[in-house]
């Protein structure tokens, strides 16, 4: 793990791994989509239940991505490691996309189930705050011209945002919310019927593989960009 913190070793290790991840992502999505449409409709929700196969993985991965961003920010801030900073920066955009997808599909699911597109429920509000942390992280980096100062400021914000993760996760247990409690990771096992559990787990695996593929590709692109930037700076000094 610490050996891969070296950018050269990281690039060498991930070069063959990245296309494999993209291929695995494509296969998992193909299987997951097929299982999602093959599953029967719910006796109460009908075909609306299929939104679950998009919404739940997006919300779960959105949380996990911010955890990765926060941990990377910690190593970037404390140890000043450029690869950790690149990892944090690369996680922001896909994390924001997953969280936005969770909010949109949640609204689409909530309207027929609850009779409204949005309520200031603890779970919904905390996920919206998570999305705003993603946007704030990217906006802060873009607003400061000095990359080192931008990286430090964004890392601090990334660490502050970690406080919101347990609030998102346990909000349905701590407060009386309209959002249903956990049905997958819960004491006593999942409450989902196997016909819904199989496509949901497959789609969650597909989303996770997609994030890893995007993340590694983005980190590799960021490393290459910084190498080119450093090379141009050296050439300018020599000139």
What does the model show?
78% of the residues lie in helices and 0% in strands. With 239 residues, the protein is an all-alpha fold. It has helices spanning 7-38, 52-79, 82-114, 122-143, 147-161, 164-174, 194-238. The protein is built from seven helices and no strands. It has a single domain, classed as Four Helix Bundle (Hemerythrin (Met), subunit A) (Up-down Bundle), CATH 1.20.120.
What structural class is derived from the secondary structure elements?
mainly alpha
CATH architecture: Up-down Bundle
Round the Cα radius of gyration to an integer and report it.
20 Å
Number of domains: 1
Poorly predicted runs are: none
Quick tags:
single chain; 239 residues; mainly alpha; Four Helix Bundle (Hemerythrin (Met), subunit A); 7 helices; 78% helix; Cyt_c_biogenesis_CcsA/CcmC; cell membrane
Topology record:
Layout lengths: L6 H32 L13 H28 L2 H33 L7 H22 L3 H15 L2 H11 L19 H45 L1
Helix pairs in contact: 1-7, 2-3, 2-5, 2-7, 3-4, 3-7, 4-5, 4-6
Pfam families: Cytochrom_C_asm
Keywords: Cell inner membrane, Cell membrane, Cytochrome c-type biogenesis, Membrane, Transmembrane, Transmembrane helix, Transport
Protein name: Heme exporter protein C
Question: What is the gist of this entry?
Answer:
Belongs to the CcmC/CycZ/HelC family. It holds the Pfam family Cytochrom_C_asm. The chain is an all-alpha fold.
């Amino acid at each position: 793990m610490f050996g891969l913190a070296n950018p050269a070793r990281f690039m060498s290790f991930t070069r063959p791994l990245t296309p494999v991840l993209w291929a695995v992502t494509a296969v998992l999505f193909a299987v997951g989509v097929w299982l999602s449409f093959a599953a029967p409709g719910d006796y109460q929700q009908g075909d609306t239940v299929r939104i679950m196969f998009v919404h739940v993985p997006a919300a779960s991965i959105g949380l996990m991505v911010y955890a990765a961003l926060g941990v990377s920010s910690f190593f970037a801030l404390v140890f000043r490691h450029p690869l950790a900073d690149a990892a944090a920066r690369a996680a922001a955009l896909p994390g924001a996309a997953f969280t936005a997808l969770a909010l949109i599909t949640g609204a689409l699911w909530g309207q027929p189930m609850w009779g409204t597109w949005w309520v200031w429920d603890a779970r919904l509000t905390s996920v919206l705050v998570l999305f705003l942390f993603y946007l704030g992280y990217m906006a802060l980096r873009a607003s400061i011209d000095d990359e080192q100062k931008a990286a430090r400021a964004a890392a601090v914000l990334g660490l502050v945002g970690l406080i919101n993760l347990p609030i998102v996760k346990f909000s349905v247990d701590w407060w009386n919310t309209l959002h249903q409690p956990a049905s997958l990771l819960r004491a006593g096992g999942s409450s989902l019927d196997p016909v819904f559990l199989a496509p949901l787990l497959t789609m969650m695996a597909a989303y996770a593989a997609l994030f890893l593929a995007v993340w590694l590709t983005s980190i590799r692109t960021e490393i290459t960009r910084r190498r080119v930037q450093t090379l141009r700076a050296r050439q300018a000094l020599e000139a």
